[in-house]
Amino acid sequence: MHTVVERELELKLVLSPERSIPVPARLSYRTDDPYAVHIAFHIGSDHPVNWTFARELLVEGVFRPCGHGDVRVWPTKVAGRSVVLMALNSPDGDALLEAPAAQVSAWLERTLRAVPPGSEAEQLGIDAGLAELLAPTPADDLWLRDPWPSDESKDGE
Q1: Which range has the worst mean pLDDT, 28-37, 93-102, 121-130?
Q2: Burial code of 80-110, b = ≥16 C-beta within 10 A, e = fewer?
């Protein structure tokens, strides 16, 4: 059985140092996809804008700047409030989003209780799947036998 940890919250899309607009968002974490976090931004269109990136990136970004490329996350203070900034870059455009640090941290703690760091692979069942895939079968005996006895064998041994 898989667990889903979700949180609705209002982010701010930073347009300039003086101006931002509210953006309702849903943070989602699924134990069947244990390495990723999903964020759906509801921007007034028929379909939300969805982003998926590493949970580890968001966890680290609550404490210190991290990431490069399409997703960068870092903590800061805005008007005396602790926030987490997320810079998202795509071919469709760039966005700088501000999230309340306390709410993001509380949600992340719930995800870390659901799947502790370092145990993500267990959720995927990779080891069990590989063991099953690599388990010997009776047909393997046929492949392991030498179909042509060497010249040194005696009478077909």
Answers
A1: 121-130
A2: eeebbbbebeeeeeebbbbbbbebbbebbee
Q: How many C-beta atoms lie closer than 10 Å to residue 47's C-beta?
A: 8
- What is the model's pLDDT at position 140? 63
72 has pLDDT over 80: yes
For 75-102, write each residue's pLDDT tens digit: 999 989 999 999 999 998 899 999 999 9
3-state DSSP assignment of residue 144: helix
Query: 3-state class of 80 per DSSP?
Result: coil
Count CB-CB contacts under 10 A for residue 28.
19
Backbone phi, then psi, for 147, in 5-degree steps? -70, -20
- Per the CB < 8 A criterion, the answer to whether 141 and 121 are in contact is no
Quick one: how far is CA 60 from the chain centroid?
13
Nearest Cα residue to 107 out of 25, 49, 21: 25
Please give the structure tokens belonging to residue 52.
């998926």
Residue type, 118: G
Chain centre to alpha carbon of residue 120: 10
pLDDT the model gives residue 138: 67
First to last CA, the chain: 54
